[in-house]
């Protein structure tokens, strides 16, 4: 009898802590929750630096906070290997959107021929990124990495890091400007 009760309790606790499917409705709920948190975060950063108008630095920190918090909450809901990989892939997409946003801001701050230099650098970075992704996917093959489902997470994380690093490079260029 005690054994049956133990098994029932064990199964009940397993179901209580089971991951939930990350449905579009759940993603929308997470996004809405993070949007509210991002506003509080932005306000606390602005207040800390005594800003009356939000600075580009505060906007950047808030944007970064938002996309990373969404990824964290997605993983908290679906912490399977596939769920983590999907969250990292989405995070990379979000980093790429931020990269495009801040690249556009930097491009507008530059004049004619200097814009062309930035465009060339970005095209070259895209070629580098694409080449590096080929290397990342190659070394993630079972014959080199030893395999395992975790390789998808490692590969997605390394690809996401490429985009995040470029985003920070663009932001560092923006930091050079005197406002």
From TrEMBL:
The keyword Metal-binding belongs to this UniProt entry's keyword annotation: no
Signal sequence residues: 1-18
Keyword tags: Signal
Any Pfam family: LprI
Parts of the chain that traverse the membrane: none
Gene3D superfamilies: 1.20.1270.180
InterPro entries: LprI-like_N
Coiled coil: none
Protein name as it appears in the record: DUF1311 domain-containing protein
């Amino acid at each position: 009898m005690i054994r049956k009760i133990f098994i029932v309790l064990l199964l009940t606790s397993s179901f209580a802590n089971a991951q939930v499917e990350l449905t579009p409705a759940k993603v929308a709920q997470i996004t809405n929750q993070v949007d509210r948190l991002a506003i509080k975060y932005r306000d606390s950063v602005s207040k800390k630096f005594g800003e009356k108008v939000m600075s580009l630095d505060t906007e950047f920190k808030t944007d970064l906070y938002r996309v990373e918090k969404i990824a964290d909450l997605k993983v908290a809901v679906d912490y399977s290997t596939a769920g983590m990989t999907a969250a990292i892939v989405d995070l990379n997409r979000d980093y790429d959107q931020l990269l495009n946003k801040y690249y556009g801001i930097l491009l507008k701050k530059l004049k004619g021929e200097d814009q062309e230099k930035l465009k060339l650098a970005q095209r070259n970075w895209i070629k580098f990124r694409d080449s590096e992704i080929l290397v990342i996917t190659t070394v993630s093959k079972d014959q080199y990495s030893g395999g395992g489902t975790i390789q998808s997470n490692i590969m997605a994380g390394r690809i996401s890091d490429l985009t995040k690093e470029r985003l920070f490079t663009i932001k560092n260029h923006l930091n050079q400007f005197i406002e």
